[in-house]
Specification:
By secondary structure, the protein is of the alpha/beta class. Helices cover 38% and strands 19% of the residues. The protein has 3 domains: 73 residues, Urease, subunit C, domain 1; 271 residues, Metal-dependent hydrolases (TIM Barrel); 91 residues, no CATH class. Bound molecules: zinc ion. The site of zinc ion has 6 residues, from loops.
Length: 518
């Protein structure tokens, strides 16, 4: 009897669902669907209603009709991409750039930001601001540990007192309560670099208690301080001791000293996973990182106390000599002055030039030229060509590696990452299959960041859906023109609303400020 009642209820609710689906807002037909799960493409139609996916399958057979039908013949239908590492916060908070066009035109419908341990500490206020102003993509936040430390201890390189540690814990706790998805660090950068592993573990435990993750720009991606492999071990230890899933931001082997270490890093991570630690990573498909002159060349001890202290150390002959000596080694590590390109500078004589050319024009050597620039016009954004193609391929093939842009001004990755991965690593060169490239840009980052009901094409999930042309998809952004929008996205839906229609952006603000819930 009870089974009969259950069958009846199921039949009624199935009919109700079918009735809802037949009245869809948007029907995407005849496309090849990659649903994000990593399975190969298949012929399937997708229907959207309000902010949800309401049907996947054979629309004709199921009698689905919709207010708008899109013929996706020859096109690929996929979940909207999810970028676990961006610096989109200023854009999302800006009246003129909150549509997040750089990402929308790549098919990215959700971005994480406040990575690298930097960004506003007030999570709730920022999310509320986005709620009221509107944003073009969905967005989520991490509690930025570097900013937390800065708020409590300034640029001090000392260990925190028990009271200071308690204050930092309280800030992380507040951020998590206000909706952050975890805590981010930038242990390469000051002031995060002044934190010991133990200090980070104490704060990561707070994020873990709320179910969040630990996202890190690790202490050393190269041979600067503890070295790449010891740095990887530190991240894994934080995961183990704080009982928190760890996420390596922009995994790489930076500089000739560590080229070829990708296989070793992958083996270490697989071993940690077998041990039960949850480990993931993301990667951008470029051989140059985006950083700044100070971050790339100046040792952290010289930054302690802030810019005035740095300037005093540059001016004093004794510290100047030590500083310049260490900077020469850092420049060598990164491939020399010819591998350091100044980008997006307001200084005409600097923008688009490499440090070797700048030094030659000034009749000085590269490190002295860099110090002069830092002293007189301030820190400059740079593209630092320091990765090799083999390591990039090796990391990309690893099963735990997803796609992230780390988008920053002046580097083409902000406008090009996702289409570039498909163009260069799937279509032009068979590094990945299409289904793997799509899964690593959608369901996998959703799982790693614990984003609910996004990253896959599934009935009942949010209507973040993209339709792109595999014949034309590509990045157009370059180091000379980093802000050229990508091409090939025909339709981009964010929460069921079109952000791109037939290749043209609508400038809609259908994104949502996402709050983490366990
Ligand atoms: Zn970073």
């Amino acid at each position: 009897m009870r089974r009969l009642a259950l069958a009846l209820i199921l039949a009624i609710s199935a009919r109700a669902a079918a009735a809802q689906a037949t009245a869809a807002d948007v029907l995407i037909t005849n496309g090849t669907l990659y649903d994000g799960s990593g399975t190969p493409g298949r012929r399937a139609d997708v229907a959207l209603r309000a902010d949800r996916i309401v049907f996947v399958g054979d629309a004709k057979g199921a009698g689905i009709t919709a207010a708008r039908t899109i013929d996706a013949t020859g096109l690929i239908v996929a979940p909207g991409f999810i970028d676990p590492h961006t610096h989109a916060q200023p854009d999302l908070s800006s009246a003129s750039r909150r549509t997040n066009l750089a990402y929308i035109m790549q098919g990215v419908t959700t971005v994480a930001t406040n990575n690298d341990g930097s960004g506003p500490v007030g999570i709730g206020a920022l999310l509320a601001k986005w709620d009221s102003a509107g944003i073009g993509t969905n967005a989520l936040l991490f509690v930025p540990q570097g900013s937390v430390r800065g708020a409590v201890m300034g640029m001090s390189d000392r260990a925190p007192t028990p009271a200071q540690l308690q204050q930092m814990r309280a800030l992380v706790e507040r951020g998590m309560r206000e909706g952050a998805f975890g805590m981010s660090t930038g242990l390469y950068y000051a002031p995060g670099s002044y934190s010991t592993t133990e200090e980070i573990i104490e704060l990561a435990k707070v994020a873990a208690a709320h179910g969040g993750i630990y996202d890190t720009h690790q202490r050393d991606e190269s041979s600067y301080t503890i070295g790449l492999l010891a740095s990887v071990r530190e991240v894994l230890r934080i995961g183990r001791d704080a009982h928190i899933p760890v996420h390596f931001s922009h995994i790489k082997a930076l500089g000739a000293d560590v080229w070829g270490d990708a296989d070793t890093v992958i083996a270490m991570i697989h071993a940690a996973q077998r041990e039960g630690i949850s480990v993931a990573a993301c990667q951008y498909p470029y051989d140059a990182s985006g950083t700044s002159l100070v971050s790339a060349l100046v040792p952290r001890w010289a930054e302690a106390g802030g810019r005035d202290s740095l300037l005093a150390r540059i001016a004093a002959p004794a510290t100047h000599a030590r500083l310049a000596g260490e900077m020469r080694d850092n420049l060598r590590r990164r491939g020399g002055a010819g591998a350091m390109l100044i980008v997006s500078s307001r200084q005409r004589d600097l923008a688009g030039k490499r440090l070797d050319a700048i030094a030659a024009a000034r009749g000085t050597e590269p490190v002295e030229a860099a110090l002069e620039i830092i002293r007189t016009v301030g820190d400059q954004s740079v593209a630092s060509f320091n990765m090799n193609a083999k390591d990039i391929d090796t990391f990309m093939r690893a099963d735990f590696v997803t796609t992230c842009s780390d988008g920053s001004d002046g580097h083409p990755r902000k406008f090009g990452t996702f289409p570039r991965k498909i163009r260069d690593y799937v279509l032009d060169r068979p590094v990945l299959t299409m289904e793997r490239a799509i899964a690593s840009s959608s369901s996998q980052p959703a799982r790693d960041l614990q984003i609910a009901q996004r990253g896959r094409i599934e009935v009942g999930w949010f209507g973040d859906v993209i339709v792109f042309d595999p014949k034309t998809i590509r990045d157009l952004s370059t180091y000379a023109e980093p802000e050229r929008l990508a091409v090939g996205m025909k339709w981009v839906f964010v929460n069921g609303k079109a952000a791109v229609e037939n290749g043209v952006p609508t400038h809609s603000l259908a994104g949502r400020a996402l709050r983490f819930t366990k």
